[in-house]
Write a structure and sequence with these properties.
heterodimer; A: alpha/beta; 2 domains; 4-stranded mixed beta sheet; elongated; B: alpha/beta; abc type-2 transporter like fold; 15 helices
């Protein structure tokens, strides 16, 4: 027990480290909270929109693109959007070409929108599919009217009356098709009650960052073991008589308790009581790993490199696991510690 | 002095081995990930219980659309077969087009297409949900316009057969328009700009992370020298502090630059990624900036533990705020303003533009 108290005292007496710990933790938490609060809005894919046509159809398309939850639309000139694309601020540019409205009215909607993207980009094609869905209503209503007006004398409605009628049924649920989708977590055989939203991707990323933060905290806290090897204290302690294991365990617990506040706060801010528990378990495992690594390496510089490998490696594997379902990443990714933590937390 | 500093760095064999192992592992990891992540990954099942011309058209679309097939591996089967595969986790989603679906659609009886999405992988589930939403827009547009025209014709007293004939004609026309939606778009790509594919983005983010850690190590050595009063001893031996710092800085730049070059060369040679030549300059520039930042921080600190906490947290902060984890385009406006002060943001921005 003495060793536990002693280790905790040593950690708390390191003022510079303590102050850095508190300031860094506050800044990181503020950053993660700011990301968390913007999660739903910013999960949409950012695209640029250039409107080169002044028709009501072009305006309607711009408005419905802005209302699409999966897109975050910035409107501007082609030069501005090009600059944003090259800066990595948007994924692609949609240019509503001059004559857009006219071509829709004529029923020949070929190449009425130009999509500009990078060479390897695939997302823009999915976004085009979504945008196409928004354009299709106007295209169909114009084609429908052309068919109607071809009927001859019996057709008495003016174009405006025809459009108004179709508009009047637009929001009628009888005419609205939707899929009857059920979500099931096949791994746990549970039918999901929560709706799947874009924000879930963001939440997974934030959980991944929290895992990295906890791993980093465990790693920097265990550095004291290396310093003790470097100044010879650790070797002297080994000379003391008695069973070493209990005192080593107490030593480790001292470090774990020192890092505990960050685990508690991060779990509390971003999740519920279960989240706190997952964070503490993850933190405990990382403290064990870092203690073993630091005692094995014994040198600060080398320990820093090993720690970087651990934090970056586990972090990257965790983040890649978030997208492995789409990009076809290797199966083992979902069994890495950060991937398990992300999955449990989200 | 520089030669001696280089010798000193290389004398720490354990550290050099660890550094090379780290870069080697990173390079292998990148190559492995890039090679392993090709081909459609999302498994999508369709059971067509209706078996009409219309549903055949939709099925053909799933087969022939290059975009769809680049993301989705389409598997056909009966409802029972797909259900079984889904329960085994072999499918990410399946749809069942029910019997009489087309007939009911033209009689405005909404018979939904049933679907099940495996939500174990949240990211795939989000993509599939968005896709299902966009396809319901397509079906709704076709359906309401066919039915709207039929309603108007009935109200105007057209014969049943005329309404039916027109309904068949317009349904085909609108369905073909919907399926040919790719022709609405003209595609242009910016030459030599590879865009923001996730893998490339994270490789660059990983590179700057390694560079920042390299700077942290340079700072750690500087701090240890400072605490060991190495500078005072060298001054008494006639070597100025500026010269000592400059030599230290150059030694780290050469060592880290050389190691990064090997890793980048390995990745390029094995064809995992095409890294433009101009990017090499940015890598050296980033190493220089990183070393300067951390060597300066080290000069201001008096404790190794404090430096370790501050340095590591600073790296994590710069990585998150600079778009190293959530790509810059998805960050909130406030965080993007902060990102502009981080090396991560500038490195990724410059390297993405390097080929243009």
């Amino acid at each position: 027990m003495n060793r536990f108290v002693l280790r905790l005292k040593i950690c708390l007496r390191a003022r510079t480290a303590g102050i850095c710990y508190i300031i860094s933790a506050i800044v990181m938490m503020a950053l993660l909270l700011s990301l968390d609060s913007a999660g739903e809005e910013r999960s949409a894919i950012p695209v640029g929109l250039v409107i080169n046509d002044e028709s009501p159809e072009a305006e309607a398309l711009a408005a419905s693109m802005q209302d699409t939850p999966s897109m975050y639309v910035s409107i501007g000139t082609l030069d501005e959007m090009n600059e944003q694309l090259l800066d990595g601020l948007i994924n692609c540019i949609f240019v509503i070409e001059e004559g857009f409205g006219e071509k829709i009215r004529m029923g020949y909607p070929d190449e009425i929108v130009t999509v500009i993207s990078g060479e390897d980009d695939k997302i823009s094609v999915i976004l085009s599919d979504i945008t196409g869905g928004k354009m299709l209503y106007d295209i169909c209503v114009n084609k429908g009217y052309r068919a109607y007006s071809s009927l001859g004398e019996k057709s008495t409605m003016t174009k405006q009356q025809y459009f108004d009628y179709i508009d009047s049924i637009k929001d009628d649920p009888i005419y609205k098709f939707s899929f009857d989708i059920k979500y099931e977590d096949v791994a746990s055989k549970k039918i999901e009650e929560k709706e799947v939203t874009n924000g879930m991707i963001y939440k997974q990323m934030i959980a991944g960052m929290m895992a990295m933060l906890l791993c980093l905290m465990a790693f920097v806290s265990c550095n004291c073991f290396c310093l003790e090897y470097e100044n010879g204290v650790a070797y002297r302690l080994k000379e003391l008589p008695g069973n070493k294991l209990p005192s080593e365990v107490m030593d480790f617990l001292g470090i774990f308790v020192y890092t505990l506040p960050l685990g508690l706060v991060s779990g509390f801010l971003f999740s519920d009581i279960k989240g706190i528990l997952y964070s503490l378990v993850y933190l405990f495992i990382m403290c064990v790993v870092c203690t073993l690594v630091s005692k094995g390496i014994k040198k600060t510089e080398s320990y820093q490199i090993a720690g970087a490998v651990l934090v970056i490696g586990l972090g990257v594997l965790g983040f890649v696991s978030v997208f492995s379902g789409i990009i076809g990443g290797p199966e083992f990714l979902k069994y890495t510690p950060n991937a398990i933590y992300i999955d449990l937390l989200v | 002095m520089l030669a001696k500093d280089l010798k000193l760095i290389f004398s720490d064999k354990k550290m050099i081995i660890l550094l090379i192992a780290l870069l080697g592992l990173s390079a292998i990891g990148i190559i492995f990930c890039v090679k392993e992540t090709k081909g459609p990954a999302v498994k999508f099942g369709i059971a067509d219980e209706d078996q009409t011309e219309y549903t055949a058209l939709i099925n053909t679309y799933f087969d022939e659309n290059p975009v769809f097939s680049s993301y989705f591996n389409v598997i056909r089967g009966t409802r029972e077969e797909l259900e079984e595969s889904f329960e085994k986790g072999e499918l990410d989603m399946y749809l069942v087009i029910p019997k009489d679906f087309t007939e009911n659609l033209s009689d405005i009886i909404n018979m939904p297409i049933e679907g099940r999405i495996n939500s174990t992988d949240k990211t795939s589930a989000v993509l599939l949900t968005n896709l299902a939403d966009s396809y319901s827009d397509y079906i709704s547009s076709v359906e309401m316009n066919c039915q709207g025209l039929a309603d108007i014709m009935r109200a105007e007293g057209y014969e049943y057969s005329d309404v039916h004939d027109m309904n068949v004609k317009i349904s085909y026309e609108l369905l073909f328009t919907a399926l040919g939606k790719d022709s609405f778009f003209k595609r242009k790509t910016i030459e030599r700009f590879e865009g923001i594919s996730l893998i490339n983005y994270y490789v660059y983010a990983g590179m700057i992370l390694l560079i920042l850690y390299a700077g942290l190590l340079a700072g750690l050595k500087t701090l240890k020298e400072k605490l060991g009063k190495v500078g005072d001893r060298l001054v008494s031996a006639g070597i100025g502090r500026t010269r000592m710092i400059a030599s230290n800085f150059m030694a780290f730049l050469i060592v880290y630059g050389f190691i990064m070059l090997i890793a980048v060369g390995l990745i390029s040679l094995l064809g995992a990624l095409n890294i433009p030549f101009r990017a090499i300059l940015f890598i050296f520039g980033a190493i220089a900036v990183s070393c300067i930042i951390f060597m300066l921080i080290a000069r201001l600190m008096n404790s190794v533990s404090g430096y370790m906490v501050l340095g590591n947290m600073l790296i994590l902060f710069m990585t998150i705020a600079g778009g190293g984890i959530i790509p810059i385009m998805y960050l909130p406006e406030g965080v993007i303003s902060v990102a502009r002060f981080t090396p991560t943001y500038w490195f990724i921005k410059l390297i993405l533009k390097a080929g243009v």
